[in-house]
Amino acid sequence: QVHLVESGGGLVQAGGPLRLSCAASGRTFSSNYMGWFRQAPGKEREFVATIRWSSGNTYYADSVKGRFTISRDNTKNTIYLQMNSLKPEDTAVYYCHVDRSYWGQGTQVTVSS
Q1: Paired residues of 57 in beta bridges
Q2: How far apart are CA 104 and CA 77, in angstroms?
Q3: What is the DSSP string of 23-40?
Q4: Three-state DSSP class for 74?
């Protein structure tokens, strides 16, 4: 089992920054990648960003490319999502995952215009 705890969500004005964290515990040694999805009200959950645990290679949705940065700290089994130039359309619950098999409880991000 893998347990994920997200933090860092909140309310921010458009154009501002926010950083999310996701700490993993449990059987993480066999994980291939971690990442973030988000779900806005009335919409389906969508991909945001992924990082390969071993190589550090990163992948982003077109909608966040150039504004969001995903990173990892291997020593802490933690990933981060640095979000800059936030837009109202980034408002959603952000979910952390491991190999899309384990999911966190989600953290709310609200961007006011």
Answers
A1: none
A2: 14
A3: EEEES-TT--EEEEEEE-
A4: helix
Closest to 86 in 3D by CA, of 104, 70, 66: 66
Torsion of CA 62, 24, 71, 6, to 10 degrees: 60
- For residue 93, the tally of other CB atoms under 10 A from its CB is 18
Distances (CA, A) of 77 to 17, 44, 62, 65, 110: 23, 28, 26, 24, 26
For the segment 17-30, what is each residue's pLDDT rounded down to a tens digit? 999 999 998 877 67
pLDDT tens per residue across span 31-48: 789 999 999 999 999 999
Helix (H) or strand (E) holding 106: none
